[in-house]
Amino acid sequence: MWREAVGEALREKRHEFGRRLVDLAGDAGVSPQYLSELECGLKDRSSEMLDAVAGALGLDAAELGFRAAARLRRATREAELDSLAAAVRRGDALPGIALGGSAHTVDPLPEHPLSSADPTGTPWSGAGEAFLLAA
């Protein structure tokens, strides 16, 4: 997972600067194939190589690590929310959520919880999407 997060952070920054892979690879002193494998999370990388590629993007390795860690945190939160939303849709008891000292089972979400149209009369779009509200 870490390799993929680092690779995605590299690719995102490269695109942000409008750099072509082949040009960045040349500036970093690595082959385009190696850089492509780094960006895809397929290649184990040394700290020296990461520093060279990050430097060619105007970053240091610490900034690249920070960006990758932020991606991992987002991915973890999204996976947890997806799992929780699926449990709510199934009506499962939610672990770790207790009201009055006991866990509660929640009712599954109806297909259309309010109506088929918003207050302006426009039909709802995205039927089947689940939204999770937490207090």
TrEMBL record:
Q: Which domain of life is it from?
A: Bacteria
Gene3D superfamilies recorded? lambda repressor-like DNA-binding domains
Coiled-coil regions, chain positions: none
InterPro entries xref list: Cro/C1-type_HTH, Lambda_DNA-bd_dom_sf
| Sample GO molecular function, one term | DNA binding
Q: Where is the HTH cro/C1-type domain?
A: 10-64
Against CDD domains, the record matches this protein to: HTH_XRE
SUPFAM superfamilies reported for this sequence: lambda repressor-like DNA-binding domains
Protein name from the UniProt record = XRE family transcriptional regulator
* Taxonomic source organism: Galactobacter valiniphilus
